[in-house]
Write a structure and sequence with these properties.
The structure holds two protein chains of two kinds. By secondary structure, chain A is mainly alpha-helical. Chain A has helices at 12-31, 38-56, 72-98, 104-121, 126-145, 151-182, 187-196, 202-219, 227-234, 237-262, 267-290, 295-315, 319-346, 362-365, 367-381, 387-401, 405-431, 444-459, 464-478, and strands at residues 61-63, 68-70. Chain A has one domain. Classes of the chains: A mainly alpha, B mainly alpha.
C-alpha cells in the first residue's frame, strides 16, 4: 500500500500549542511551587507564539486527506480565540489566586480547550468536528468543576456535563444520518454528493435537524438554552468569562463548516430552522434578562439574545450574511470579556460581587470604571456610535438584502427591549447611591487591559471597515 | 429471509429490550448488567458486518474493563433508588408522548424514503483469510492519523481533569511516606515477648 506522509506544515501552530500544553503541565509539576506565576506566564507566551506562527504562515491549504483545512476564516478565528484566551488569563489572575484555583491544571485545561477550538475551526471532516468539540467541552466541564468547595460550581459542571453529553449524542446521531445518505464523512465530498443528488431526501433532512439541534444546544439558542443561565451563574467568574467568549467563535466555525461547507445546498431547509431558533432566542433572551438581579445571569440571558442575533446573519445564507455574523461574534466576544471583566474587578476574596446592585453608585467612587462599564453596556445594547451598533447594523443589512424584512423588523424591536436592561445598569452607576464602599480588585495589567478593552469599542471605529472587509474576504474564500 | 436476517433481527431485539431495561430497571446493579448485555449484542451485530476486530475490542474494552469498574462504583456508592426514581412517573406522560412521536416520525422517514443519495454497491463479503485487523491498522496510523492523535489528546485531558478534580490535600487524607517505610527496621514492627508457658490445670 502506498502511503505519503501528510504535509504537517499547515498544522504547525496546533502541534506547537499541544507541545506547550504538555510543557506547562510538566514544568508546573516540578517548578510550580518555586515560581508561582510560571504556568500563567508560559501559557500567555505560548499563545502569543502560536498567534505569531499563524500570522507568519497564513495560507490556504488542505492536509491530512482533507481533514485539516487552513484558510483565512480559520486563521482569523484562531487568532481571535487565542487573544480572547490571553485576556481571560490576565483578567482572572487575582480572582483565581483569591480562590485557590490559580493552579497549573487551570492553564493546561484552558490550553487544551483552545486546541479543541482550533481543531473545530479547521475541521474538514465531521469526525474532527466532533473530536474538537469533545476536547473543548471536556476541558470546560473540568474547568468549571475545579472549584471543589463551591456547591454552585459543582452543580453547574454537572448540568453542563449532562446536557453537553446529550447534545454530543444528538450531534453524532445527525452526523450518522448524513453519513448514511452521502456515504462519506468528508465535508467537501458531502457537499458534492448533495449538489448532484436530491437535497430533499428525508433521511438527510432528519440528519440536518439533529445537527442543528446539537449546534443550538452548544450555542445556547432557545429552546435549547436551559443550561446557559445556570452554568454562567454557577461557574467561577473566571471560567464564565472564558466560556462566554472564545467557544462562541468555535461554534460559529462549526456552523460554517457544517452548514455552509457541507450542507450548503440544503440552505432552504436550515434557513427555516435557524429563523425559529434566532427569533425565539432574541425575544426570550431580551425579555427574561429584564427580570434578573444577578449580573452573571443577566449576561447569560443577554448571551442568548446575542446568539440569536448572530444566527440571523447566518440564516440569510449569503456570503455577506456570514461575514456579518463573523464580525458580530468577534465584537460580541470582545464585549463579553469586558463585561465579565468588570464583575471580576469588583469581586474580592470574600464576595463574588455579581449582583447588579453592586454597581450602584459606581460613578461617585470610580468614575473611570463607570465610564468603562457604560461603554460596554451601551455597545452591547447596540447604540451608535459604538462598535456594537455596527455589528448589529451589518447583520440587519444582510437580512434586508436577502429580503427577510419581517425577521429584521422583529429583531430590531426586541433589541430595543434589550436596551432597557443594559441602560438600567448605567442608571444604577450614575444616579444611585452606593450601598457599600466599592473596592476594586485586580492587578495593574488587568486595569489597563480592561480600560483598553472598553475604549477600543469607540476608538476602534476608524478600523471597522477594514475588519468587515477582512471578514468578507475570509468568507468569500469559503464558498 | 435468509439466516443472516433472522440473526440480525433476533440480536437487534435483544439489544433494544436490554437498552430499555437499562433505564427502567429498579436495581442499579441489574441496570449495569443489562448494559453489558447491550454491549455484547452490539458486538454481535458488528460480527455480522464482518468487523470481527471491532466486535472483540468492544467486548474487551467495554465489557471487560469499563463495565467492571462501573459495577464496582455502583456497588460501592450508596445509591438511594427511591429518591432517584422520584419524578419518573410524573415526567412519564410528557416524556412518553415525545418519545413515541419521535419514534413514529423516524419510522415513517426511514421506511418511506430510499436512503443514500449516492448509489453504492452492496458491500463485498470477504473470505476467512481476510484480516480485518490489518486493514484497520493500515488506515488508522496513515489516513486517520490526525483524528487518532486528537483522540489521544482527549484521553490526556481526561486524565489531567480527573486528577485535578480528585487529588487535593485534606486534613484527614491518609497517605504513605515511602522514606519512612523504607527506613523501618524489623524491631519497629515486631516485638518479642516472653511468655511463660502455662501449666496444665489438673
Amino acid at each position: 500500500m502506498e502511503f505519503q506522509i501528510p504535509d504537517f506544515a499547515p498544522a504547525y501552530p496546533e502541534i506547537f500549542l499541544l507541545c506547550m500544553a504538555g510543557a506547562v503541565l510538566l514544568l508546573d509539576l516540578f517548578l510550580g511551587k518555586r515560581f508561582r506565576n510560571l504556568a500563567y506566564g508560559l501559557s500567555i507566551a505560548s499563545l502569543l507564539a502560536t498567534i505569531a506562527m499563524i500570522i507568519g504562515s497564513s495560507q490556504q491549504a488542505t492536509t491530512f486527506n482533507g481533514m485539516f483545512l487552513r484558510d483565512l476564516m480559520g486563521d482569523i478565528l484562531k487568532i481571535a480565540v487565542m487573544l480572547f484566551t490571553i485576556m481571560v488569563f490576565i483578567y482572572s489572575r487575582i480572582y483565581q489566586q483569591d480562590r485557590h484555583i490559580f493552579k497549573g491544571e487551570y492553564f493546561v485545561l484552558a490550553l487544551t480547550a483552545v486546541l479543541g477550538m482550533m481543531v473545530m475551526i479547521s475541521a474538514g471532516n465531521m469526525l474532527l468536528l466532533y473530536l474538537g468539540l469533545e476536547l473543548l467541552s471536556l476541558s470546560l466541564y473540568s474547568l468549571i468543576a475545579m472549584r471543589r468547595d463551591s456547591l454552585h460550581a459543582t452543580e453547574a459542571a454537572m448540568k453542563y456535563f449532562i446536557l453537553g453529553a446529550l447534545a454530543s449524542g444528538i450531534l453524532l446521531y445527525g452526523m450518522s444520518m448524513i453519513y448514511v445518505t452521502t456515504g462519506t464523512l468528508d465535508l467537501a465530498q458531502i457537499h458534492a454528493a448533495i449538489r448532484t443528488g436530491d437535497s430533499a431526501n428525508l433521511v438527510l433532512s432528519l440528519g440536518l435537524v439533529f445537527v442543528v439541534v446539537a449546534i443550538g444546544f452548544k450555542l445556547g439558542a432557545v429552546p435549547f438554552h436551559m443550561w446557559v443561565p445556570d452554568v454562567y451563574q454557577g461557574s467561577p467568574t473566571s471560567v464564565t468569562l472564558f466560556l462566554g467568549s472564545a467557544p462562541k467563535l468555535a461554534a460559529f466555525a462549526m456552523l460554517m463548516r457544517l452548514l455552509v461547507g457541507g450542507l450548503e445546498n440544503m440552505s432552504g431547509q436550515w434557513q427555516q430552522m435557524l429563523i425559529i431558533l434566532a427569533l425565539f432566542s432574541i425575544g426570550f433572551g431580551n425579555i427574561v434578562a429584564i427580570a434578573q438581579t444577578n449580573m452573571k445571569r443577566m449576561l447569560a440571558y443577554s448571551a442568548i439574545s446575542h446568539v440569536g442575533f448572530f444566527l440571523l446573519g447566518v440564516l440569510s445564507a449569503t456570503p455577506d450574511g456570514y461575514a456579518a455574523s463573523m464580525f458580530y461574534i468577534l465584537v460580541y466576544g470582545f464585549m463579553t470579556l469586558g463585561s465579565f471583566g468588570m464583575i471580576l474587578l469588583l469581586s474580592n476574596k470574600d464576595s463574588e460581587s455579581d449582583m447588579i446592585a453592586n454597581f450602584k453608585g459606581m460613578f461617585s467612587a470610580h468614575p473611570l470604571y463607570a465610564l468603562v462599564m457604560t461603554l460596554l453596556m451601551v455597545s452591547m445594547a447596540g447604540i451608535p456610535p459604538l462598535i456594537g451598533f455596527n455589528a448589529k447594523l451589518a447583520v440587519i443589512n444582510a437580512l434586508v438584502e436577502s429580503r427577510l424584512y419581517w425577521v429584521a423588523v422583529v429583531a430590531v424591536l426586541f433589541s430595543v427591549v434589550g436596551a432597557f436592561y443594559y441602560l438600567r445598569i448605567v442608571k444604577f452607576m450614575y444616579f444611585d447611591q452606593p450601598g457599600e464602599a466599592i473596592r476594586l480588585n485586580g492587578g495593574m495589567e488587568m486595569h489597563t487591559l480592561l480600560t483598553i478593552n472598553a475604549l477600543a469599542l469607540i476608538l476602534g471605529l476608524p478600523w471597522i471597515g477594514w475588519l468587515i472587509r477582512i471578514c468578507n474576504s475570509a468568507l468569500a474564500q469559503l464558498s | 429471509m435468509t439466516f443472516e436476517h433472522i440473526v440480525f433481527y433476533a440480536i437487534s431485539l435483544i439489544l433494544l429490550v436490554s437498552g430499555l431495561l437499562v433505564v427502567t430497571v429498579k436495581n442499579p446493579v441489574k441496570a449495569a448488567l443489562f448494559l453489558i448485555l447491550c454491549f455484547v449484542s452490539g458486538a454481535a451485530l458488528w460480527l455480522l458486518l464482518e468487523a470481527e476486530f471491532l466486535a472483540l475490542t468492544l467486548i474487551l474494552v467495554y465489557v471487560g474493563a469499563v463495565m467492571v469498574l462501573f459495577l464496582f462504583v455502583v456497588m460501592m456508592l450508596d445509591i438511594n433508588i427511591a429518591e432517584m426514581r422520584e419524578g419518573f412517573v410524573r415526567y412519564l406522560p410528557v416524556g412518553g408522548v415525545v418519545a413515541v412521536l419521535m419514534m413514529l416520525e423516524m419510522a415513517m422517514i426511514l421506511a418511506s424514503s430510499k436512503t443514500g443519495l449516492v448509489e453504492r454497491s452492496h458491500p463485498v463479503s470477504h473470505g476467512a483469510d481476510y484480516s480485518n485487523t490489518a486493514e484497520i491498522g493500515s488506515v488508522l496510523y496513515t489516513d486517520y492519523v490526525y483524528p487518532f492523535e486528537i483522540a489521544s489528546v482527549l484521553l490526556v485531558v481526561a486524565i489531567v481533569a480527573a486528577i485535578a478534580l480528585t487529588m487535593r490535600k485534606r486534613p484527614q487524607t491518609k497517605k504513605q511516606t515511602p522514606s519512612r517505610q523504607i527506613a523501618t527496621r524489623a524491631g519497629d514492627r515486631l516485638r518479642m515477648v516472653d511468655l511463660k508457658s502455662e501449666k496444665k490445670q489438673p
